[in-house]
Amino acid sequence: MVAPLAGVIKERTVAPGAYVRDGDQLLVLMRVDPLKLVFDLPEKHAARVVERTEVRARTAAFPGHTFQGRVRLVLPVLTQESRAVRVEARVANPSFRLKPGSYGSVEVPLRSLSGSLTVPQAALVSREGTENVWIVRNDVVELARVETGVAGPDAIEIVSGLDEDAQVVISGGETLQPGDRVIAKPLNGDQGPGVGGRGPESRIRR
């Protein structure tokens, strides 16, 4: 008997010495190299992952070890339960260390969208579990809720919630309250006058 593929026996359906007929199932053979990795991606990141994107997986069984893989398929529909995108990747498993059915964590690099806006990380203000920035209109601050995307070392992408020409407070935001007045300080090193120790403001960077 020759197996149609290389793998491991998941289940044996007959006992030694049993009589079998043509077409009877003898065993279940499972391919484990490469191993299929399935995970859900939040809807807001659906356009940021494409086929052949490299991913890294970790499991509790092998702490400190990373398994490399690539995205093979991004399903075009959302799951009904979590409103997320189902993604399938292939992970090399030549030594069969990973076991089918294992759970773990996945790191997925997200590509930036063309024309997206970024602000300094320090500009983000957390309020009641939401992400916000202070915007300035006529020298008065307003709190604007935003949706963030890819984060870099110093800046973070803003997916929605801000206009391109908005002015944003980039430091001292945790001390502000709606309606506070501020005076802008330029970003070219000329630290002009401030008001009540408030932080500077700047235009969103593209």
Report on the architecture of this protein.
The protein has strands at residues 8-12, 27-30, 35-42, 54-59, 67-78, 84-91, 104-107, 117-120, 125-127, 130-137, 140-145, 147-151, 155-160, 167-169, 201-203. By secondary structure, it is mainly beta. The protein has two domains: 33-107, Efflux pump adaptor protein, beta barrel domain (Elongation Factor Tu (Ef-tu), domain 3, Beta Barrel), CATH 2.40.30.170; 117-203, conserved putative lor/sdh protein from methanococcus maripaludis s2 fold (Beta Barrel). A five-stranded antiparallel beta sheet has the order 3-6-5-4-7, with no helix packed on it. The chain starts with 7 loop residues before the first strand and ends with a strand.
